């Protein structure tokens, strides 16, 4: 409870400088959301045509959702509906294809709340993923330390999230703590999954990909062999079978 209170206190700081009004003030997944952005302070204030682009994180994926946009004097209003399973959303204003008002590269974020009106720690992780992994879509700054900070705040409030989102966490860890220190910390975390009898296929596969990217193909190969043994009907085996069929000159043999 104390950790959740700290998370609640940190949210106003995270939202400072967004220069927007959100209605409802504590949006929940599935809600219709109204964003109002003050164009008098926007680089697009003189633009004749502006659209609001919204990127949402739901079910482990990022996707754009449609927003109805209207201009009211110096205000730009966007209205959209969050998906029932939405964890977070980020908006940006765009003129043409490349001219963005993206809150100075930090994005206009919508924090998703629970039924009691409290921000969800998982939403913080989702916001970090939108910012860091998909922020290029809106020309966001994608600063590793910003995403890493959001994740650590979320994990402090709900520790089990660290396991669920360990792959993006390790990626940000390596970006923030460069060199051997970061690699050593990442390897220690990944070693926990390798030795855990309850590790999922996706957790082991993400670990194998890490080893491949960091110049340890033998370790990656051994881990993939383990995946094939533990999950004979899993995604890795299915993908390899599909690849074998596609590469077979005589499909009748496959």
Give a nutshell description of this structure.
By secondary structure, the chain is α+β, with helices and mostly antiparallel strands. Helix content is 44%, strand content 21%.
Would you give an account of this structure?
The chain has nine helices and nine strands. With 254 residues, the chain is an alpha+beta fold. The chain has a domain at 1-142: Immunoglobulin-like (Sandwich), CATH 2.60.40. The strands form two sheets. Strands 3, 4, 7, 8 and 9 form a five-stranded antiparallel beta sheet that branches. The chain has a four-stranded antiparallel beta sheet with strand order 1-2-6-5, with no helix packed on it. Strand 5 (68-72) and strand 6 (75-81) form a beta hairpin. The radius of gyration is 21 Å and the shape is elongated.
Beta-strand residue percentage: 15-25%
- The succession of helices and strands, N to C, reads HEEEEEEEEEHHHHHHHH
Tell me, briefly, the overall form. elongated
Distance between the amino and carboxyl termini: 57 Å
Q: What is Rg?
A: 21 Å
Q: What helical percentage do the residues reach?
A: 40-55%
CATH topology of one domain: Immunoglobulin-like
What low-confidence regions span 5 or more consecutive residues with pLDDT below 50?
A: 1-16
Tell me the total number of β-strands.
Answer: 9
Structural class: alpha+beta
**Helix count, DSSP H or I runs of 4 or more residues:** 9
Please tell me the overall pLDDT: 89
Largest sheet: 5 strands, antiparallel
CATH class category of one domain:
Mainly Beta
Based on the coordinates given, report the CATH architecture of one domain. Answer: Sandwich
